[in-house]
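thread: overnight batch results

M.L. [08:02]
morning all. the overnight job finished for the chain we discussed friday. pasting input first so we're all looking at the same thing
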Amino acid sequence: MKGLLQRVSQARVEVDGEIVGSIDQGLLVLVGIEPQDFEATADKLLKRLLEYRVFTDADGRMNDSLTDVQGGLLLVSQFTLAADTRKGRRPGFSTAAPPDRAEALFDYLVAQARALHPQVATGRFGADMQVHLVNDGPVTFLLEV
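M.L. [08:03]
and the structure it wrote out:
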């Protein structure tokens, strides 16, 4: 499972012109799910997302986590993160989990996040989404679990 996290001052996801999820300060996380991923993998990624120290403390150092700053968490499924890009000029998607399995695991991740964190928003699985963000820093990390 891959999580491309971006520290944002604000972010939102629109589907057909409707805002389906938005946050102010926090993390926008694009989530790629692979065939070998299970609930335990999602739990591990979520723990890292909530505890990863990417926010600045009073001394201007990246020492605070999402939990510390009580920021928003915007989770967006993105199967293209699981693409095989090692060769050629076109990505291969056989390395991504099948849509029904990926959706179930993404829903599990969202449910667990909502149980552990007060501000969780999402995109819409499988939809054509427009993601708007103001990347703070910019600070972007790829977490793989």
